[in-house]
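Lecture 7 notes: from sequence to structure.

We start with a single chain of 135 residues. Read the sequence below before looking at the structure.
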Amino acid sequence: MASILKVDDLRGNTAAGNITITSEGGAATMQLQQGLAKSWLNLTGSGTPAINGTLNVSSITDHGTGEYTENFTNNYSSTNDQSFSGCSAASANYMLVYHANYTASTSSHKFFTANQAVSLVDATPAWIQGHGDLA
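Now the structure, written as tokens:
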């Protein structure tokens, strides 16, 4: 019979936020909190943009065709310690493009959606996920 563990609060033995997981092969370890997504967004980008589902995203700002900002409920701790990726599934093969000249922020993330010709388009749906440390 399988065991069931039910808890409301999980804390590390040495430090509350430090829970170490051993790899499947047993040769490596990692900290659990470092591997978890700290934000994600499922966005309808066409028409009036709308949030379909989210973790740690309080709202979105529409700056025009293919240009959005996701605003976080809980800020990231540093602009140097965050990573975002995303994709879109649409008939015109949209892809997400991060603007290289954008100034990073701990409270929001600006992103663009473009087609294969790198022309900005309103992609629907679009998904963004973020990793890093929260403040």
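The chain has no helices and ten strands. Keep this in mind for problem set 3.
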